[in-house]
Design a protein that fits this description.
Layout lengths: L5 E4 L5 E5 L6 H4 E4 L4 E7 L5 E6 L3 E5 L5 E6 L4 E7 L5 E6 L1 H9 L45 E6 L5 E7 L4 E6 L6 E5 L4 E3 L1
Antiparallel strand pairs: 1-2, 2-3, 4-5, 5-6, 6-7, 8-9, 9-10, 10-11, 12-13, 13-14
Length: 198
């Protein structure tokens, strides 16, 4: 964190600790109790506030240095698996559904209904982005805001507090996000296909 302390999120009791020194006692280091089962992901916003992604409520929380929390997003999916803050102050959150999150916790390979079994990395077509084939991208047949039966979704939380769904998939399980500084947006690390979301 900006003051040099280490933030740690826990499972089975969903607490966030701010560790200031070696051999710190848990009761002296507790920053916030989320009342969720797990704190899956942590990050920082541009102001240095802690961001936390939870399970099973699928919440993105902003926690100030004095331990006050504010919910930025209720994803409607089980867990917030990854968080990144963009240079413009937007926060990107990767959410997983029950099916995707249970396969990630069990350590097994996620089940995918994708027909691509070649193992070759391809670019996911998102909102008319070029798919690398040289042809015209095909329009999405399902609204990206339709979260029924999705395995993964990426949300963008704007600096003014608004949020939108950038991408969702019923077949692809995503596990990581990273800023795409060259093109803007984020890169999504997935179990079977990779792509960028502008």
């Amino acid at each position: 964190m900006p003051d040099g302390t280490l933030a740690a999120g826990t499972g089975d009791n969903g607490k966030i600790y701010r560790v200031k020194a070696a051999n710190a006692r848990p009761e002296d280091s507790l920053l916030y109790d989320t009342n969720e089962t797990h704190v899956i992901s942590l990050g920082l916003d541009r102001q240095g506030n802690l961001l936390a992604g939870t399970d099973p409520g699928g919440l993105v929380l902003r926690i100030t240095s004095d331990g006050k929390a504010f919910a930025l997003l209720d994803a409607g999916l089980r867990e917030i698996h990854s968080l990144v803050t963009a240079p413009d102050g937007s926060i990107y959150a990767l959410a997983l559904s029950d099916a995707a999150s249970s396969s990630s916790r069990s350590g097994g390979a996620p089940v995918s209904t994708s027909s691509d079994t070649s193992g070759v990395s391809t670019t996911v077509v998102i909102s008319g982005v070029d798919d690398g084939s040289g042809g015209t991208p095909t329009p999405a047949t399902r609204s990206r805001n339709d979260l029924a039966n999705v395995r993964s979704a990426v949300f963008r939380i704007l600096p003014d507090g608004g949020a939108d769904t950038l991408w969702s998939s019923t077949t692809v399980t995503a596990f990581a996000l990273a800023n795409d500084t060259a093109r803007g947006g984020v890169l999504v690390g997935t179990s079977d296909k990779g792509g960028s979301i502008p």
